[in-house]
Every structure is written in C-alpha cells, then in structure tokens.
Amino acid sequence: MEENKQPHAAQEAAAQEKPRNAFLAFLARKDIVFSAKRYGIDALGAMALGLFGSLLIATIFNAIGLIPGLAFFKTIGSYGAQAAGCAMAVAIAFALKAPPLVMYSSALVGLIANSQGGAGGPLAVLLIAVVAVEFGKAVSKETKVDILVTPFVTVFVGGVLSILLAPYIGKLVGLIGEFIGWATFQQPFVMGLIVSVVVGIALTLPISSAAICAAIGLSGAAAIAAGMTPNEVYGVALAGGAAVAGCCAHMVGFAVMSFHENRWGGLVSQGIGTSMLQMPNLIKNPRLWIPPVVASAVTGPLATCVFKTQMYGAAINSGMGTCGLLGPIGIILGWFGGQYPGSVGATDWIGLFLICFILPALISLGVCLLLRKLGWVKENDLKI
Asked: What is the C-alpha separation between 170 and 123, in angstroms, rounded?
C-alpha cells in the first residue's frame, strides 16, 4: 500500500511544479525580475535622471530667465513641471528594459500619477509606473493586435492605480508638510533644526520638497498674504530660510563629498541639479546620509538664530536648495522685493554664502572623510 502512495505523491508534486516552472519561464522570457536592485536601485536611479532631464533642467532655465533680456529661457522652463511625470515614467520603463510600445505608453501613466500625487508625485510615479510597465511587458507581443493591447493594458493599469493610490501617496507626503508647519512655530533653534533636517531629507527623497514648501506657504510673503500677525510672519520667514539651508546642505553636501567618485560632472549635476541622484546609493548604504544631515542640523539653527536668514521670495524656492540656485535667489529676490522688513547688510550676504555653500561643503566633506576612515563609506559608494 505504501508503495502505491509514493508514486501518487510524486505525480502530484510534479503536477504542481509544472505550472510554477512555466510561470517562471514566462517571467524570464519577459525579463520581469522581482528584485530590490531592479526596482529600488535601477528604476529609482533612472527616475532621478528623468526628473533631472525635465523639471530640474527647466528650473535652471527659469533661473537664467530672470536675467534681463533672457526671458525666453523662462518660457521654455515653464513647461518643465508638465513634462516631469512623463519623463520619469519613461526613464523607469527604460531601466526595466521595456519594449518600445510599453515605454511610450508609460509617458501617459507618468503624467497621470504625477498629477494625482501632488507633493508625492515622484514617489507615485515610481511605484505606479513600475507596476504598469511590468504588466505591459507581460502582454507585449502576446497577441496579433499588440499595437492596441499593450498600450491599453499599460495605461489602464497605471491609470487605475493612479486614481486609486496616488492621492493617498500625496496625503501621506502631506503629513510631512503638516509636521514642518508645526515646527515653523516652535522656538527658533528647535524650528531651525527640525525644518532644515526634514526639508533637506525630503529634497533627496523621491518626493517634492518644493511642492511641500509651496503648499504650506513657507515664505514671509505668503504669510503676509495669509493675513498672519507680524510675529507669525517673522517665524514663517525664518522657517523658509531654514528650509533653504537644509536643501543646500544636502545638494552641496552630496556634490562635494562625492567629488572623489564623480568629479566635476557629479559636482554640477548634484550641486545645481538634484541630490536625488544619490538615492540608489542611499538604499544600499544609508550611512551616506549622515554628512548632509549633520550639515543641515548645523546650518538650520545658524540660519534662524545667528544670521536671521529669512525667505520673502516665492514659497516654492524654500524647497529648491541650490537647484538652479533658486533657493539663494529666492532669498535675494525677497530682500529686494518690497516686503522684507529690514535693510540688507554685509552680515546678510555673509550668512547667505556660509549657510548655502561654504558650511555645507566643509561639514559634509569633513564628516564624510571621518566615515571613510571608519569604513562606513567605501570606495565608489557615492558613484552615480
């Protein structure tokens, strides 16, 4: 009797294994790889490049457009926000080795996800585009009407997920904005520390620090427009300065501390572009975050308590850092925009350069060198 049961059990196991093997063979044929590297490093790194090639380069164009006689640069740059979702999704599809029709269809997915996600748009694009692209890859060239089926499945999956999930991703990121808003009205040292560190980290994450700062009106000018009291306006303006300090600490910090690996190209792309380019490396080694966080924890309180750095420019500039130099430019334009309540002296200019450029570079580089000696940061850990 036992001898009869053994062949039967073996047949059942073989029958169960056959569909599993067929499914794995299908995934291999479609190059669908479920791995942290494929999604957390390759796709995320490509998304950062897509963001750089659309919104961030457009931001630089906007900065150039402020120069008299070069307003056409601003006209070009004004379309960057509209293109960002599409560019990020296509970049993700490229990283996932999607067939052409899937890649082209992902542009619409990115547009929907980014629009529905608000301040969490980039994160929504990352999560939703990955799923939509993999579904598109699965059906690609499986039917005789591929030109209809493949884009339909890609856009349908991405569109439905965008409608269902992206707004909640935006609300989740909005909680960060609420926390920053709470911190804005704390004692200046505490406020400077919290706002600088949190907004700086948000800048590097796949979310929009600029959108967060714009949403909560992190500028003295926005506070005046909202009818706040003079003391409240002063606190908000200081918080805007602290936000700029934190963003600059991350952008300049990563640019300088990774100069050994990335040289001048990396210095420019991170220092004037985005520190988000380091996100794949941060996933592999979170200790890389220590130097810029330390720098932001120092420069934020210095901005609020020592130099009284205030933002009276556009609130969105508070979350831009040195991207297109729009953080410092926002502060400068605020000084001379008619609402800044004081005169601008040498201390203001010295504080601006120390907070935005010199201290982030020196602190981040010094801490990074210490971490390299400790073995926490190794050769090519910061390579982009």
From this structure: 9
Neighbours of 2 (CB within 10 A): 5
Residue type, 131: V
SS3 of 376, please?
A: coil
**Three-state SS for 383?**
coil
Picking from 213, 281, 295, the residue whose alpha carbon sits closest to that of residue 246 is 295
Query: What ranges do the domains of the chain cover?
Result: 31-170, 185-374
At residue 212, the pLDDT reads: 84
Virtual torsion, Cα 222, 199, 186, 304, nearest 10 deg: -80
Predicted pLDDT of residue 332: 92
Q: Which two tokens stand for residue 119?
A: 């301040």
Neighbours of 313 (CB within 10 A): 28
d(CA 283, CA 40): 7
Which secondary-structure segment (H or E) carries 124? helix 121-139
DSSP 304: I
Take residue 343 and report the two structure tokens written for it. 């005169």
CA–CA separation, 375 vs 189, rounded Å? Answer: 33
9-18, 58-67, 73-82 — which is least confidently predicted?
9-18
What is the three-class DSSP state of 342?
A: coil
Question: At which residue do the structure tokens 């729009």 appear?
Answer: 326
- 12 CB burial (10 A radius; 0-12, 13-18, 19+): exposed
353 pLDDT above the threshold of 90: yes
The Cβ-side half-sphere exposure at 313, using a 13 Å CA radius, reads 21
Per-residue tokens: 72: 């056409």
pLDDT at 279 over 60: yes
**CA distances to 94, 134, 237, 375 from 101, in Å:** 11, 12, 48, 45
Q: In whole numbers, what is the pLDDT of the chain averaged over residues? A: 89
Which of 248, 270, 249, 250 has the alpha carbon at shortest distance from 259? 270
- Phi/psi of residue 218, each to 5°? -80, 65
Q: Are 217 and 283 contacting, i.e. CB atoms less than 8 angstroms apart?
A: no
Alpha helices in 185-208 (DSSP H): 188-204
CA–CA distance, 167 with 173 (Å, rounded to integer): 10
Rg of the Cα atoms in the chain:
24
